[in-house]
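Project outcomes to date are best conveyed with an example. Our students and postdoctoral researchers have been running inverse folding experiments weekly, and each run begins with a structure described purely in tokens. The record below, which covers 378 residues, was selected by the lab manager from last quarter's runs and is presented without edits.
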């Protein structure tokens, strides 16, 4: 197939719409079910690049939850603890730890479940039955993966009354080294961003007094940077334990990126509080209602999580990693990040105030590397 017609473009008035290969080439993907739209394919191709690079770099299954051409969450296939299973609403599912890929998506979806409502899913590996069974339970528009087991495909085809979009992509496909796009009738051309997000040797040479960046933090910083590579700029990403905790995308101010990512990370961390994990939802509620829960949706009125309890819980959360797609122009970014337990930072560097940013990191014993690699994505 060298062309797929789409229902319409970005908006219903933008017709006709299609995806195709120039020079009569064959598309490296196949629609196995449903009818993906224009925005679906934008999410699919951006998210696929993200999980493919994560898998190639970190050698672990990866998943992403995409909305409007930016990740709501991305994660690696690490096992889930009992509390994490409850946190991600998979404690009553199949044995999710039997599938690292399913664990990756549970973590990615669990970053920001409100933003992931109606997401597009990307999977780095063949979609198995456990992963498909979990996807079936979520409100989602579609999924892209290199392949699907027969049972997984059967499960996914029953979703959304049979209209769920399932796309298979050739994992060996490599685009041309240059890419083009048309804006207002004018064609832009540039080299594809194929450079690695960081030279691993940089982790051995932090610019701060704190030189200790353990392997877990190196993995999480790499996860943050690769996520940013496919996030609309300006962008900042907070990660820990092989998953994103908060993604701040598309902000005009670097500080607003940091605030957005850290505010989301704080909310994600607060969901781990014993009072939150102990909430008992009414049996008749679906997963979206749980994500938007208010007290009337619970079997009994919960105890109030006081401001002091919030602050105490957040203050005990340390060792998060933060990546930035461009340099920090002022040290106020570091001041906000450390309040969310950030202990490790990776950013390109190059600001005239780099010395002030480094000093602020030193004041809080934060280890920071400068990658020398800007990761803008538009």
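After processing, the design step wrote out the following sequence:
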């Amino acid at each position: 197939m060298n062309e797929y017609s789409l229902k319409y473009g970005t908006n219903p008035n933008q017709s006709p719409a299609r995806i195709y290969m120039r020079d009569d080439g064959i598309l490296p993907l196949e629609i196995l079910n449903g009818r993906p739209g224009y925005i679906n394919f934008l999410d699919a191709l951006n998210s696929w690049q993200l999980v493919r690079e994560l898998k190639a770099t970190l050698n672990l299954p990866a998943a992403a939850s995409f909305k409007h051409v930016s990740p709501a969450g991305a994660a690696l296939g690490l096992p889930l603890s009992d509390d994490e299973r409850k946190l991600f609403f998979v404690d009553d599912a199949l044995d999710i730890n039997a599938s690292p890929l399913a664990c990756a998506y549970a973590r990615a979806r669990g970053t920001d479940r409100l933003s992931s409502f109606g997401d597009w899913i990307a999977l780095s590996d063949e979609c198995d039955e456990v992963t498909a069974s979990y996807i079936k339970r979520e409100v989602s528009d579609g999924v892209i993966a290199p392949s699907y087991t027969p049972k997984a495909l059967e499960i996914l085809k029953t979703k959304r009354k049979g209209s769920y979009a399932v796309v298979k992509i050739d994992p060996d496909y490599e685009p041309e080294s240059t890419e083009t796009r048309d804006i207002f009738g004018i064609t832009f051309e540039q080299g594809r961003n194929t450079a690695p997000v960081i030279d691993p040797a940089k982790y051995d040479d932090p610019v701060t007094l704190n030189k200790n960046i353990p392997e877990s933090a190196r993995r999480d910083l790499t996860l943050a940077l690769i996520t940013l590579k496919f996030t609309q700029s300006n962008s900042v990403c907070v990660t820990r334990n092989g998953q994103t905790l908060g993604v701040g995308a598309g902000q005009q101010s670097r500080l607003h990126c940091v605030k957005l990512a850290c505010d989301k990370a704080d909310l994600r961390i607060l969901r781990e509080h014993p009072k939150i994990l102990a909430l008992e939802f009414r049996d008749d509620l679906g997963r979206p209602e749980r994500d938007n829960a208010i007290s009337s949706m619970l079997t009994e009125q919960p105890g109030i999580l006081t401001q002091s309890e919030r602050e105490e819980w957040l203050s005990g959360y340390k060792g998060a990693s933060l990546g930035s797609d461009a340099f920090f122009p002022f040290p106020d970014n570091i001041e906000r990040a450390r309040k969310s337990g950030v202990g490790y930072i990776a950013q390109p560097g190059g600001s005239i105030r780099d010395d002030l940013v480094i000093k602020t990191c030193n004041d809080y014993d934060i280890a920071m590397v400068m990658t020398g690699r800007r990761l803008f994505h538009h």
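The chain has two domains: 3-183, 195-370. The chain is about 35% helix and 20% strand. The training component of this project remains on track.
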